[in-house]
């Protein structure tokens, strides 16, 4: 897209993969825009949760997060801040060809602190995950069936060695499947495990499940038989991808980390996007490849940020993101009309 007027500038989007349909932009936000969004969000953020506090507010390790919605109509915002949010709305309208509307949630800032990772022994004993403590989801989660496209912009850089990647465990590297035998040999996943992943994603969606649940808590009484194993398969691979991405960042091999720092798992299935200031990832929950239905390749989640490698800023936050979901108009209420809109 190209801006206009006093704010004119060019920004280039690169197609990263087709399943899910995913694009990456290295300069979606300027440094000044990142600073401005953080400045307006900080006074509005809810107070942090004390992980050492006992009672209802105590959060398990790696699951503490804060969020604040930002709306141009909020009277607490300065006029120049409200104007910036409107410009960002215009930017999305220019990119997608669809104006933002009242049936969508507003821009939201998410603040994630660093956390002490479980050891391998602890993770195995608890049936938990070292890096994917919040689980995986598709963005139609929480009864938001009209969602079709998501933008995640990064407001500050998180050292990739510390984690914090946005992980797409089922993303398919272009040309990756053809070279699967060589890459599979260089990965930690067996052929049988890999073959179970996509069917597991399909089955979860087929049962109406759009969140895996947290690691170690996927076996719920109301879930159909077998879905716990499907969820654990996806979580295990996502954890594998997140762990490999953090390790690869230390060595930074050119074979796995491109100029954007994107990491592809050696098997060709699994992508980790690092949090780098001003950059943005845009991916389609619904696309032509699935005839407008939810794409099982779009399961994703945020990896934990390791304590000691990214200590956080003055607010105790190690990862800052700005997110926005694009949704079909409220008139599109049934599955057929939502899918038709996604294919327009």
UniProtKB/TrEMBL annotation:
UniProt feature, compositional bias: Basic and acidic residues: 50-59
Keyword Metal-binding among record annotations: yes
Gene3D superfamilies according to UniProt: q2cbj1_9rhob like domain
Cellular component per GO, a single term: endoplasmic reticulum
Alphabetized UniProt keyword annotations: Iron, Metal-binding
Stated name of the protein: Prolyl 4-hydroxylase alpha subunit domain-containing protein
Region of interest: Disordered: 45-64
GO molecular function: metal ion binding; procollagen-proline 4-dioxygenase activity
């Amino acid at each position: 897209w190209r801006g206009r007027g006093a704010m004119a500038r060019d920004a280039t989007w690169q197609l990263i993969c087709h399943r899910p349909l995913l694009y990456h932009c290295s300069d979606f936000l300027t440094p000044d825009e990142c600073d401005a969004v953080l400045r307006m969000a900080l006074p509005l953020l809810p107070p942090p949760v004390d992980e050492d506090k006992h009672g209802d507010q105590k959060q398990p390790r790696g699951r503490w997060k804060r969020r604040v919605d930002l709306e141009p109509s909020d009277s607490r915002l300065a006029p120049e801040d409200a104007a910036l949010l409107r410009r960002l709305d215009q930017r999305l309208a220019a990119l997608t060809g669809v104006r933002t509307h009242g049936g969508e949630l507003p821009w939201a800032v998410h603040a994630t602190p660093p956390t002490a990772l479980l050891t391998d022994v602890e993770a195995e004993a608890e049936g938990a995950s070292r890096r994917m403590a919040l689980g995986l989801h598709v963005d139609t989660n929480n009864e938001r069936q009209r969602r079709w496209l998501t933008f995640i912009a990064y407001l500050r850089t998180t050292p990739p060695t510390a984690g914090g990647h946005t992980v797409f465990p089922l993303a398919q590297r272009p040309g990756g499947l053809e070279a699967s035998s060589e890459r599979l040999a260089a990965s930690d996943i067996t052929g049988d495990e890999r073959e179970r992943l996509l069917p597991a994603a399909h089955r979860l969606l087929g049962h109406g499940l759009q969140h895996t649940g947290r690691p170690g808590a996927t076996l719920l009484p109301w879930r159909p038989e077998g879905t716990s194993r499907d969820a654990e398969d996806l979580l295990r691979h996502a954890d594998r991808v997140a762990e490999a991405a953090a390790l690869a960042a230390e060595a930074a091999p050119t074979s796995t980390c491109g100029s954007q720092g994107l990491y592809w798992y050696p098997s060709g299935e699994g992508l980790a996007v690092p949090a780098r200031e001003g950059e943005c990832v845009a991916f389609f929950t619904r696309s032509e490849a699935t005839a407008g239905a939810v794409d099982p390749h779009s399961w994703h989640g945020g990896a934990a940020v390791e304590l000691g490698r990214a200590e956080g800023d003055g607010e105790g936050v190690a990862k800052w993101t700005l997110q926005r979901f694009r949704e079909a108009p409220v008139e599109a209420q049934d599955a057929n009309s939502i899918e038709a809109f996604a294919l327009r």
